[in-house]
Write a structure and sequence with these properties.
heterodimer, A: globular, B: 3-stranded mixed sheet, 12 helices, 31% helix, globular
Chain lengths: 263, 399
Amino acid sequence: MTLGARIEGIGLVGPGLASWSAARDALAGRIAYERASTVVPAPRALPSTERRRAGLSVKLALAAGLEAVTNAKREAATLAAVFASSSGDGENCHAICEVLASEEREISPTRFHNSVHNAPAGYWSIATGATASIDSVAAFDASFAAGLLEALARLAADPATPVILVAYDVPYPEPLHATRPVPDAFAVAMVLSSAAHGAGPSIAARLAPGKAQAMRDAGLERLRREIPAARALPLLGILARGEPESTALEYLDGLALRVQVAT
Amino acid sequence: MRPLLISAATLASSLGLGLEATRAALASGASGLVPCRFETAALDTWVGEIRGLDEVALPASLAAFDCRNNRAAEVGLSQDGFADAVREAVERHGAARIGAFIGTSTAGILQTELAYRRRAASDGALPADFDYRRTHNTFSVAEYARARLGLAGPCAAISTACSSSAKAFASAARLIEAGVVDAAVVGGVDTLCLTTLYGFGSLDLLSTSPCRPYDEERDGISIGEAAAFFLLERVPANARTGVALLGTGESSDAWHMSAPHPEGRGARMAMEAALHAASLAPEAIDYVNLHGTGTQSNDASEDRAITALFGDRVACNSTKAMTGHALGAAGGVEAVVALVAIREEFVPPGVGTRRIDPALHARYEIAGGPRRVDRVMSNSFGFGGSNCSLVFGRVESLA
């Protein structure tokens, strides 16, 4: 069964990828991709109290999400949302586990509420005033495709409400880093509307047996393999080139999410 | 939405193992709560534990998934004929046409908490037997359930704190409706860990006695643990009996990370959306199983939402003083409560409540009792302002 949508706007923050507009040429292969540490902008949209409390994953997800909303010329408050991440905030998780392994065991309330997988989703709704449903899904290395599938199914059920998909991952500090070596932060966001109503390139997606497509550029391929949210790169490459093409995104064992892009 | 039949269900919680034990406990008003002796927790609170998890063994081929949370999942999957029912569904639809959507808030984080006590003296490394992917990671329990049941369709963990497993129903329903799958396993699995015990302690939200939802002296939650699973399929044309999911409704508070909107704005939106999806008026609901955690703010906020939508007409109460608050599994636990109430024709008692807070105005039933229950609404609200309401109904009552 194929599910469709239009992509109205994209946001991106990753290693050497400062924003969607800044990264387009490298993703399209028009200029060389040069890796550099991810710079996560400060979340201006958050009230100051929340801004102080927000961890890296929140700032990262908000930055990509807000860029996508701006590029789509939409009001964030009117969108439903799907957040997808392989894990929660790594630094916060480490800090809690360290305290719980000590004699003291005093977790701060902020650390605790930041530990939920849907913390970025919660901060997003506070920052934007969005009161529609927000999902928060995880599927290990298939988390981006799982989020895209969730967003497309949501659009199919309610074509009148556009959906923003935000997929993000942040690194763990040691010792968890050694068990899940995500090297840097990466987030991608897409405002999706129903194929009938929206603007922008249209996509058609379906699950099928097969493997994920690799990136032609070695540096981008390394990035794709290192960070779960960067499994979106083959789709971003097509969208950056702006030509009709199809690709296969990583999903669960033996399956790929095949995505056909028409411009 | 089109109704979806619950063609199999099961629950393991502090009330007991399986649907029959759960039915008997709900009917008699038993409570699974005990003073907290969990692990090394030194907290003055009560908890609801699943009996016997320390002795559970996972199938050998899945031994790498071994942790408390996946043991709870295994207990659920291996009772009430659930795995057999899924096997029959695989024969009907094919393994690739059955999805699995499992709600969890903390997955196997306990395993990581324990591993952090065994870090290497030299470099701080975690012990070699620690398996991040299959125990710690949010997806671990969903991956376990999918592998254990031999499914090959879409699968995700839904992790929106205490609304997780209620929202898993909504995700599954959309994928069935869109035709991506023909059936879906929906689950909720969350188990005791120090993160949630000490975390809720840090917020001063742990009751020092068994929790007392809606009571004027309520002072917080009692944490529980549970594994609930359901098999959802389209209602066959010849279906005569059973319980179906009729509607799902979701919203966000856009208010605060750990406190509900004081007027219950998001709660009301979720309930209205669920009724709308089910094409039902509020009058059609016979019983509301409240989120009803027993904190001051949750019960006050939910009461505003209930009375705004139903007035004082609808019977409602909370079963959390029986099961404990199973956090990400709470939506699954309470979907079983709805199923039992409809099938067995009774409203469970509102255990734990002695004197209803005079500031709350919904028709809170302490006694419960036998009566025909055709449609139940179940509420689940979580951190991040994540709200989900579900409506379940008797198949015979479908228009």
